[in-house]
Amino acid sequence: MNWLLKQKMVAVLFCFLAVGSTVLVATAEVKKKTVAPVTKNPVAQSMVSFETALTKYQVKKTQNFFPALTKRELKIEEALGTETDCRFLDQPLAEVMAFFAEKHAIPIIILGIDLGEEGLTVDEPVDFDVNNVTLHDALELILKPIGLTYIVENGVVKITTTFKASEKLTSRVYPVGDLCRTVEDYLTLESALRNADLGDWRERKTGCASEKTQNQPQKPGASHPGGGGFFNIPDGNFKGGESVAPLLYEDGDGGTITIVPQSHALVITQTYHAHKAIVDLLTQIREAGVQE
């Protein structure tokens, strides 16, 4: 009798264990289905947000002036930033440029007439050996010692004299509304560009603009001297401001900067290499702001 009772108790105990394990498995499955999709990694979320913001910034960084570069110009600028290796032993300049043109698949021409004005020829000997430098740096290291440089114009790389390159000025519009909110911001940015040794700048005419402004009735707000003019800024804000008197430049060589408050932009006239330096400086200023 006692043996039969023990058998029944064991059977009942197994039944309870079986039911309990089934309940535990079912509960775990329910938690897995309901809880897991809701749980998200906050670190992963923040990384996605940061990457999205960074992507938007990178797009903005590459399009920070007008007119935009053409496809051919973009290809050339990309090639100038790639690394190159070369070894030349008293080889003619023409052969050296042909080597780079073929290696990097970009058009390079030598302006022989420009060189002739400086008593140089396309046969100038080049003795140069370097590894792991950008094509831009290689060209600068080769050309600068003999008074030459390169510019990108009309979709090709042109080898010319430093003097001729300094005479070729182009104008670009640089939107800077993300960097400047007040007139003081624009003037500070203009000073940073002019004082950063990015190129030569023409002298401003003094007296004429301020005298003209003083003789005119002033509207409510503050008048400030800008890089390209004097602006009457209602409540210290560029929005709605208007140009009172343009600031003129002396005749001569060098670039100019004009503030255009209506478009929140700077119109800069400078050489090819100065524009490249301006793009780099504005990029660095924007990157410094992102890290704050």
Written description of the protein model:
The protein has helices at residues 2-34, 42-62, 71-80, 93-104, 112-117, 135-143, 162-167, 183-195, 208-214, 272-290; strands spanning 83-92, 108-110, 125-134, 148-153, 156-161, 170-175, 222-225, 229-233, 242-246, 256-260, 265-270. The chain contains 10 helices and 11 strands. It has 2 domains: 72-167, 3-Layer(bab) Sandwich (Phage tail protein beta-alpha-beta fold), CATH 3.55.50; 169-290, no CATH class. β10 and β11 (265-270) form a beta hairpin. The protein is α+β, with helices and mostly antiparallel strands and 292 residues long. Mean pLDDT is 77; it is low at 21-61, 208-236 and 238-245.
Low-pLDDT segments: 21-61, 208-236, 238-245
**Envelope shape:** globular
Number of domains: 2
Cα end-to-end separation: 85 Å
- Output mean pLDDT: 77
A few lines on this structure:
Helices cover 47% and strands 23% of the residues.
How is the topology of this model organized?
Elements: H1 2-34, H2 42-62, H3 71-80, E1 83-92, H4 93-104, E2 108-110, H5 112-117, E3 125-134, H6 135-143, E4 148-153, E5 156-161, H7 162-167, E6 170-175, H8 183-195, H9 208-214, E7 222-225, E8 229-233, E9 242-246, E10 256-260, E11 265-270, H10 272-290
Keywords:
globular, Phage tail protein beta-alpha-beta fold, 292 residues, 2 domains, 11 strands, 3-stranded mixed β-sheet, 3-stranded antiparallel β-sheet, alpha+beta
